[in-house]
């Protein structure tokens, strides 16, 4: 029995992956769940385990090739003792005629079911086109997919892409570089992650009516509270008390008052979310990723700190799953850890808001008519003006500021 090896579910907004490495070659014996190859997506690296024990047959997607979700990667001869035989190439017209004219020949195939055996030539065509079987309408017996069906589906899928490419602005060619300068340059292909970061950020600028409002917060209240309880907090909960949990709680508090910042646009609808899945931007050696703390509005300080610490470690090790980066409703980005004093964060679509934290710096401020030195931080809220009005954005940021300057407000829901 032949078992198909397909690209696993890639997660929200991820449509393709690149074959990074094949760990097995045709004819190798494989065990169930043994890693066959590694895929590189625009967010994380993903291992593809063997769905069955047997012998690896033909590899249909080579290293460096880009494949779509659910695309066919290879086949496994289940339980075979030797190398799987190469697939026999059959003329699709002859094959289709045989299927129509000889209904009684061969084993019975269930009608209109996902386990209908497609034409061998169609399987290869599916892999080459980066399509899954459910994207193609079969014209053979019982919905069997033929090679011609794949060609039609690929052409239909390519039409809107071609139109989008034609409408896209033409890239400005690089200016000529003197030979002595060119000899000292190094050209490195962008990773899938970096390509996606570039594309999504530019798409965000092109799509959303993005605007940024600023404020500043006196961090002395949080710093005093943290210094008072940090040792007892770590002893009880086994995790250090950082600043991020205060910002997450303050944002959750403000999002309840200004729900449009926690909403998104879907066509001509506005989708309001009665939950807070907080994205926390994390810098990694390969680029920025945004793991999500789900239902952050229902978590306490300790649970938030533990989850952020766990996700941060997994992000730096490249072990985040797609599920851990999907479904965020609002994002916090902390440029202050790198020394940024002020910046305008870019929205993480389809979200409508992102809060930018910055460096804590002692500055002179006026308090009760007196000039004093206080640890101050600039805050920046970038928002989609299509859904969030200026009043709502300013109100949100003021509520965050109030909660951070007097953390007791969070306990009393003020």
TrEMBL record:
Stored NCBIfam families: PRK05704.1 (NF004309), sucB (TIGR01347)
Family: Belongs to the 2-oxoacid dehydrogenase family.
Name of the protein described by the UniProt record: Dihydrolipoyllysine-residue succinyltransferase component of 2-oxoglutarate dehydrogenase complex
Pathway: Amino-acid degradation; L-lysine degradation via saccharopine pathway; glutaryl-CoA from L-lysine: step 6/6
Alphabetized GO MF terms: dihydrolipoyllysine-residue succinyltransferase activity
Species for this entry: Gemmobacter lanyuensis
Reaction(s) this enzyme catalyzes, per UniProt: N(6)-[(R)-dihydrolipoyl]-L-lysyl-[protein] + succinyl-CoA = N(6)-[(R)-S(8)-succinyldihydrolipoyl]-L-lysyl-[protein] + CoA
Cofactor-binding details, from the entry: Binds 1 lipoyl cofactor covalently.
CDD domains in the record: lipoyl_domain
Subunit structure: Forms a 24-polypeptide structural core with octahedral symmetry. Part of the 2-oxoglutarate dehydrogenase (OGDH) complex composed of E1 (2-oxoglutarate dehydrogenase), E2 (dihydrolipoamide succinyltransferase) and E3 (dihydrolipoamide dehydrogenase); the complex contains multiple copies of the three enzymatic components (E1, E2 and E3).
Signal sequence coordinates: none
Known function: E2 component of the 2-oxoglutarate dehydrogenase (OGDH) complex which catalyzes the second step in the conversion of 2-oxoglutarate to succinyl-CoA and CO(2).
Any one biological process term the GO annotation gives: L-lysine catabolic process to acetyl-CoA via saccharopine
Highest rank taxon of the organism: Bacteria
Alphabetically ordered keywords of this record: Acyltransferase, Lipoyl, Transferase, Tricarboxylic acid cycle
Record region (Disordered): 99-120
Gene designation: sucB
UniProt-listed InterPro entries: 2-oxoA_DH_lipoyl-BS (IPR003016), 2-oxoacid_dehydrogenase (IPR050537), 2-oxoacid_DH_actylTfrase (IPR001078), Biotin_lipoyl (IPR000089), CAT-like_dom_sf (IPR023213), E3-bd_dom_sf (IPR036625), PSBD (IPR004167), Single_hybrid_motif (IPR011053)
Residue ranges annotated for the Peripheral subunit-binding (PSBD) domain, each copy included: 117-154
Cofactor: (R)-lipoate
A Pfam family the protein falls into: Biotin_lipoyl
Leading EC class: transferase
EC numbers, comma separated: 2.3.1.61
Keyword Acyltransferase: yes
